[in-house]
Amino acid sequence: RTLHQNIHSSTEQRQDKKSESMEFPSASSLLLILLPPVLYISYHIARSLAKKKPTTHGLRRHPLLGHLPAFLKNRDRFLEWSTELIVASPDLRMGFWIPGMTTGIVTGNPADVEHILRANYPKGERAISMLADFLGHGLFNSDGEQWLWQRKNVSLEFTTRSLRGFLVDSVQAEVGNRLLPLLRRAADGAGVVLDMQDVLERFAFDTICMVSFGHDPCCLADGGVLTEGKSDFMRAFGEAQDLIVSRFLDPVAASWKVKKWLNVGKERRLKKAIADVHGFAMEIVRSRRQSASGEESRDDVLSRFVASDEHGDEALRDIALSFLIAGRETTSSALTWFFWLVSSRPDVVARIADEVRSVRSMAGTRPGDPFTFDALRDMQYLHAALTESMRLYPPVLIDSQSSAADDTLPDGTHIGAGWNITYSAYAMGRLAAIWGKDCAEFKPERWLGDDGAFRPESPFRYTVFHAGPRTCFGKEMAYVQMKSIAASVLEEFAVDVVRKNAGSGVPEHVLSVTLRMKGGLPVQIRRRVEA
Ligand code: HEM
């Protein structure tokens, strides 16, 4: 054998031995290799099977499109549809899944709602990025530290007595100089029909602009003449809000990004409307800076932030816009449904008028005089009637959050990270479990104690103003405004709804952030005749 042959045969022997040991591992070593992954996978399968999943009682799921077809079919009656499902389900919630878009729950279950709101689930990246073009990262459109910091600053400013005084004065001036003269004209003209929703929205816009910016857009004019066009600012703001909300309602999740990039369709209009709103708001911010440097002191929210000198112009603009979006259509929506409800309840109207008369006689004021903060506080029955009206028709229609991480609801139901979690104040207002068998009735008395004083319900059961750390900032302001309007109007006028079946058929609503009536609320105004 040559040296070469020897080397070759010894290499073959080594390779044979090696391949023998590789091809035939012993059974025990095989078990050792496979056991950990098998155990790991089985553990996770068992855990996921054990997790209680949200049920979708009665809601059909398409194998590929999930619940998208059901959503699209019911998008024009989302409130009624989701409420029917929630009220009929044993756990008072509906789960849903829309592929490529979101998984989530809409709940009316008080224990879920308390858990979610106390934990302060964030608004989430998806929602924040959709609104950021318009609202930047102001209080309403931020999470975490960014939100907390603004929340603390705003609460310092908001609790001051001078801001409250400024609000009461602004509201009383708007009532006395604009709203009442407008209604008197309507009452004195023959067959004049007013859109009450439009009037209330103009009122709310003037007031919230005064409080947020110290600017009066005069959407309701002095002396009660209703001009055809609203202020340019109100029109641009409304357009921007409607268009940005339509991003959320688009069934194709990110199509708005493509349209925005191409600058076409709704996104093109939105860009223009946002530019108008921002341009206008920036002008006001700069003028408030000038007033501040001139030692002129003003009471609106913006001027207070300017005075603290801690914020850049854009941050100031975003804070003020957050107030505008939050306070713009909420009080007007609440009052529109309130006037519609009481138009078929002369008993409620008579009790409100009696209460206003007795508060006036205690305060020594006459009809048409402005109400003080204390006089408004004493109107307990009116407070109850407004609260009851919002129980049945809550102004904020969609209040969604996103679960930051995996979580579990109080009954053990699993919530995945990033799920859309929406609570429905509308469904909660219709739960016999909270309000009793007569929950569908408009019954202001349910809020009054034996002494006639208003008894509040837990904010986690009456969730109209949200609850927990992120609860509404403007609740007290909203009541001041709503009570001022309702008391002044019902003291002097009867508001007759012009609509077939005014008392029975519930008006349709628009699918938006707030509960707006489709087609407005046409009314005729009459002067009240005392019995
Ligand atoms: C009847 C009238 C009102 C109702 C029913 C109402 C309801 C609500 C609800 C449900 C939220 C939570 C919404 C969300 O986070 O997506 C909220 C937040 C807020 N509201 Fe109101 N609101 C009303 C009036 C007002 C008014 C007049 C103002 C301003 C003066 C205001 C200022 C705010 C602010 C600043 C927030 C954001 C709070 C935060 O994120 O920390 N609200 N409101």
From TrEMBL:
The chain crosses the membrane at residues 24-43. Residues 11-21 have a biased composition (Basic and acidic residues). PROSITE patterns: CYTOCHROME_P450. Heme binds at C472. Residues 1-21 are annotated as: Disordered. Residues 1-10 have a biased composition (Polar residues). It comes from the Eukaryota. Its cofactor is heme. Keywords: Heme, Iron, Membrane, Metal-binding, Monooxygenase, Oxidoreductase, Transmembrane, Transmembrane helix. InterPro entries: Cyt_P450, Cyt_P450_CS, Cyt_P450_E_grp-I, Cyt_P450_sf. Belongs to the cytochrome P450 family. This is Cytochrome P450. It comes from Aegilops tauschii subsp. strangulata.
